[in-house]
Amino acid sequence: MKTKITTLLLLLSLTLGFAQQYPPINDGSLKVEAKADSITDAYDRELSMTAKQKALFKLKVEDYLLRKQNIESKYEGRKQLTALVELQAQETLDMNDILTRIQMQVYKKIKPEIQPLKIVKP
Question: According to DSSP H, which parts of 25-76 are helical?
Fold first, then answer.
């Protein structure tokens, strides 16, 4: 009886111990998250977003930063620039779902200052 209880406690503690492990944190994802925070804060100073808008906005910015990294690693030159322009246009369209009409007008004005496109040398 004592052996069964000990075995049961051991199995339970092992199960709970392994359940507490978190997935490894990728250093690249931390950099993307920090950059997304910085970009979101810069926009928030101008747009005065609600807490919900800010959270959604940050997630969207993170997503597009990862897409941008993917494009920059895959393409070069004019092809890269074309892909980045298309990506930025899509990002602007997606922000329509998060921001109000007035906020969108301001967003479109300040976006080139906060998130300029990469200049590619010929």
Answer: 27-47, 51-74
Q: Which of 31, 32, 38, 30 is nearest to 54 (CA)?
A: 38
Give me the domain span that covers residue 72.
29-114
Q: One digit per residue, pLDDT tens: the chain, 122 residues?
A: 667 666 655 555 555 555 444 454 455 678 889 999 999 999 999 999 999 999 999 999 999 999 999 999 999 989 999 999 999 999 999 999 999 999 999 999 999 999 988 665 55
Q: 61, 39 in Cβ contact below 8 A?
A: yes
Q: Per the structure block, which two tokens stand in for 4?
A: 């069964």
Structure tokens at 110: 């300040």
- Output the CA–CA distances (angstroms, integers) from residue 117 to 16, 41, 44, 73, 88, in the order listed: 48, 19, 20, 16, 8
Residue 32 in contact with residue 66, Cβ under 8 Å? yes
pTM of the model: 0.72
Q: Is residue 82 part of a domain?
A: yes
Q: How many domains does the chain have?
A: 1
Is residue 81 included in any domain, yes or no? yes
* 95 occurs within a structural domain: yes
